[in-house]
């Protein structure tokens, strides 16, 4: 079991994933700081010196002047300012991740995509290129699968409608 774990842990994709998680965590902290310390203060200033982290709805009957007082008293609150910060944080992470993945995909070599023309096979009757999944040739209309006995009996010609 120890050997299996060592093989699992030393695989390239597991190590890459671990590095990605660590870097993602660090990147998340940077984005959170960007939102809370750089983006939201100017927005709050424009909206009348509002600190979004202090925006909340008090669900109790008591009055509190700050969110911290409400939390200390154990009052139920809806912290929508913190939620707004978190949504902006997510949007930044999602946008950066999108552009990062898009750039990495452009750097990767293109996979050899076999064109549909090269995957064709010749019709056994008219030798025109057809799909390997075809059951009837689109050129000579010969049955390739299913009604093959009828085609063989007719000498490779299209069976007449009278048969």
Automatic annotation (TrEMBL):
Subcellular location: Cell membrane
Keyword field contains Manganese: no
Keywords, alphabetical: Cell membrane, Ion channel, Ion transport, Membrane, Transmembrane, Transmembrane helix, Transport
Protein topology in the membrane: Multi-pass membrane protein
Signal peptide: none
Gene3D superfamilies: Large-conductance mechanosensitive channel, MscL, domain 1
GO cellular-component term (any): plasma membrane
Subunit: Homopentamer.
Family of the protein in this entry: Belongs to the MscL family.
Listed name of the protein: Large-conductance mechanosensitive channel
């Amino acid at each position: 079991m120890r050997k299996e774990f060592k093989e699992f842990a030393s695989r390239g994709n597991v190590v890459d994933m671990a590095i990605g998680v660590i870097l993602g965590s660090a990147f998340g902290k940077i984005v959170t700081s960007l939102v809370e310390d750089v983006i939201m203060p100017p927005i709050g200033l424009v909206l009348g010196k509002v600190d979004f982290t202090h925006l909340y709805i008090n669900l109790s009957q008591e009055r509190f002047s700050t969110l911290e007082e409400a939390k200390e008293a154990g009052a139920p609150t809806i912290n929508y300012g913190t939620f707004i910060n978190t949504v902006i944080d997510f949007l930044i992470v999602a946008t950066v991740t999108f552009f990062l993945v898009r750039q990495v995909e452009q750097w990767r070599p293109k996979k050899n995509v076999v064109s549909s023309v090269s995957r064709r096979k010749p019709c056994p009757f008219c030798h025109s290129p057809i799909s390997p999944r075809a059951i009837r040739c689109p050129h000579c209309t010969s049955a390739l699968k299913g009604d093959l006995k009828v085609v063989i009996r007719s000498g490779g010609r299209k069976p007449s409608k009278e048969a």
